[in-house]
Amino acid sequence: MQRRRGIVTLRHRAIDSGDPGFLLFSHGCMVRSDHHCQGDAGEKTGSVRVSLHVYNTVEEIDRLLSVLASLQ
Hey, which of 13, 31, 32, 54 has its CA 20 to 30 A from 6? Predict the structure, then answer.
């Protein structure tokens, strides 16, 4: 049995997590950016989380990938 998850965590080497989070949100992508309530024992750097599921359209995923590709 395969178990798959729809949550993807992203970090950019040179850009703080708030900036790509804001950019994605401004293009209509619903994401969450920062430390994700991990507290002291959690993440040391912020990240952007994207949650994909059956309710997402192909166009939404293409838009997400396009915006992410522009961050190079």
Answer: 13
